[in-house]
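sorry for the late reply, my laptop died twice this morning and i had to redo everyting from scratch. anyway the thing you sent over, i finally got around to it. pasting the sequence first so we're on the same page, its 148 residues, then the predicted structure underneath. double check i copied it right bc i was rushing
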Amino acid sequence: MNEHEKEDRLPAVTLGHFVMKVQDVAASYSFYIGLGLRAFGSFPGTAIVEMRGGTHLLLLEKGDDQAAALRNSQNGQRPDFSSEKIDLMIAGRTKADLESYRVGLIGKGYSPSAIADGELYGHHYFSMQDPDGNGISFYTSHCSDKPV
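ok and here's the structure:
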């Protein structure tokens, strides 16, 4: 296999699971499904939604034995919010794509911020909070044209 063929293959790994501890699993499950994530399943104290690329967001009820076993952490790239934070990337690459997604969320009753002025590392973005006050930032994609 030559170097060009290696570069065109899918990356060797993907993020499998991202865990968030939440107060109300059912409310968070509905919230994330409304953002366009795929419903995967709801179980006692846990719900799972699926993102592009097959990554699963695991929503664990705070106080549940499974959630209590996880250590506290601070996630995300920027300290916009004081609690957990997750960065999501839409499929679109342009500011217009992001605005279209944002307007769709407003139509569903969400309250996202305005799209930030300028770019951050090549991304346009906006933010909002989930039912627990966890910060979510939505970014335009800058993935390569290779399969991911």
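The chain is about 20% helix and 25% strand.
thats about all i looked at so far, will dig more tmrw
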